Amino acid sequence: MKLDAMFFGSHPDDVELTSGGTVAKLTQRGYQIGIVDLTRGEAGTRGSAEIRDKEAAEAGKILGVTVRENLGFTDTQIANTRDYQLKIIRILRLYRPDIIFIPYWDDRHPDHVHSSHLCREAAFFSGLRRIESIHMGQAQDAFRPNQIIYCRARFDFSREAGYPFIVDISDTFALKMKAVDAYASQFHNINYATDEPVTHISTPEFLELIEVRARHFGSLIGARYGEPFLSREIFNLDDPIKFFS
Question: Looking only at Cα atoms, what is the longest distance across the chain?
């Protein structure tokens, strides 16, 4: 199956938080979109890996993705090893996405930092035919995505890092928040009964923060809500007049 784009997250719910509105916007336009979670989030303070599996599946349905995969890496131990690279290479060669969205390399969470470098290097090595990968007993053909896009989490993009842009998610912000709400074990939800510790992200204020951020980035492009992204590479604008109109 060929995908148009694939979004990578270190943990289930990462893609929803950074890019959920964009995922929903793309699926509504008919694009084939996939999400790949690197870990099951088993080191999280609340919930469990099994609960997160169900929450991620529900969130994926809400966003309308074609594929959602979990590579089963060990939470808090993501490392840029050849073994982990090959697992990402297999998934890239299987679905052959034109664009991949990966975590920004400058972030508070070490897993996000390590995932960024891991995904970037795996995407490059995926294009080398002498790096072999096997799927269902068959050797895979080399493949490299056309573009890597970085998703902002906690830290702002550096002006020296690359070329930022913002996607207008005004029409899909509600779907983004519905997908976030699917993670009842992680975020504030009055229907989730638990005696687990309260965390920063399980407070009502964190949900408000998501909206504040989206409003801020939307305001920069004259929209109600927005999500920021970054390209390290220069990209072609075929019709700048149409694009900037």
Answer: 56
Domain 5-233 has CATH 3.40.50.10320: yes
- Asked if residue 244 has pLDDT above 90, the reply is no
User: Residue 140: CB partners within 8 Å, gap ≥ 6?
Assistant: 89, 90, 93, 94, 132, 133, 134
**Every domain of the chain and the residues it spans:** 5-233
Mean pLDDT to the nearest integer, 199-217? 95
Question: Can you tell me whether residue 101 is helix, strand or coil?
Answer: strand
Q: Which amino acid is at 56?
A: A
- Quote the distance between the C-alpha of residue 65 and its chain's center: 12
Structure tokens at 216: 């801020």
Report d(CA 23, CA 115) in Å as an integer: 19
How far is C-alpha 135 from the geometric centre of its chain's CA atoms?
24
Distance CA 134, CA 187 (A): 38
Of the pLDDT bands very low, low, confident and very high (cuts 50, 70, 90), residue 43 is very high
Global confidence as pTM: 0.96
Task: Give residue 15's pLDDT.
Answer: 98
Alpha carbon dihedral 236, 241, 242, 245, in 10-degree steps, equals 120
What percentage of the chain exceeds 70 in pLDDT?
Answer: 100
